[in-house]
Amino acid sequence: MGAKTKGTGAERELIHKLWALGWTACRVAGSGSMLYPSPDIIASKDKRHLAIECKTTGKDYQYFDVKEIKELMEFSKKSGAEPWLGIRFSREAWLFIHPSELIMTKNQFGIARKKAKEKGKNLDLVLRTKHL
Amino acid sequence: MGAKTKGTGAERELIHKLWALGWTACRVAGSGSMLYPSPDIIASKDKRHLAIECKTTGKDYQYFDVKEIKELMEFSKKSGAEPWLGIRFSREAWLFIHPSELIMTKNQFGIARKKAKEKGKNLDLVLRTKHL
Questions:
Q1: What ipTM describes this predicted complex?
Q2: Residue range A50-108, pLDDT digits in tens
Q3: Beta-bridge mates of residue B82
Q4: What is the rounded CA–CA span in Å between residue B67 and residue B78?
Q5: At residue A94, what are phi and psi to the nearest 5 degrees?
């Protein structure tokens, strides 16, 4: 199974979890083809909206392109959504990181699995606590 | 050009307009395949969110399935978005109708082109005025 298929499967799983927890969750279509800065998933409940960029990795470090993070921040600011990075390291549950917690290295943003487990929130916690 | 292609083209055009007017706008991916009630487009600005179901028609009457309208209302209520029906009759600009303005006929909801022009809002007006 390719990385892209795996990523999509993980995104679908996250969407199922969100609906099960009483949220709406939509996968954004062909964000690339429209050329607008869009997150992978938009999740909403009672006027609280999350813009989530998703990554699935078998490695111990997850990188993000500067452009990707800038676009997530731009989208979130404009729309009034909270920006979140959802990372699914292998054998871990989804971890949610606020972009401000990433570290800049070699012109890319990133976070190590260990740091993500320390700093990241699980899905329940993200949904319970509004990030200011 | 088939109805589906035409519909997607019209949706893309609407998305371009929304971004040009300072909103974010995302097309929801394969809403059908996920089996969750999702609109065609989610448009947002400054914490105001619109859930838009889109139709393009060459006819003078646009029908909506009861299920489609129920799902749009359910999604909107849950997420805190405003529900809107975007209809693009041939040779007209997009017209936006609130679901409450549809008429129920023969187990379907619908609205005539003439009525839509009378009751509908154009895009600028929808974006300027919050529907309560």
A1: 0.89
A2: 999 999 999 999 999 999 999 999 999 999 999 999 999 999 999 999 999 999 988 99
A3: B50
A4: 16
A5: -60, 135
Taking CA atoms, A90 is separated from A96, A108, B102, in Å, by 14, 22, 49
Tell me which residues of B are annotated as active site: 31
Q: Any idea which residue has 């005539």 for tokens?
A: B112
Which of A13, A26, A50, A127 is most worth mutating to test chain B (most B CB atoms within 10 A of its CB)? A26
Helix, strand, coil distribution of chain B in percent, nearest 5: 40, 35, 25
Residues listed for chain A? 132
Cross-chain Cβ contact B80/A27 below 8 Å = no
Window B:31-90, CB contacts with A under 8 Å: 31, 34, 36, 38, 42, 44-49, 75, 78-81
- Which residue in A28, A45, A46 is closest to B26 by CB distance? A28
Task: Determine whether A34 is exposed, middle or buried from the number of CB atoms within 10 Å of its CB (0-12, 13-18, 19+).
Answer: middle
Q: What is the pTM of this model?
A: 0.91
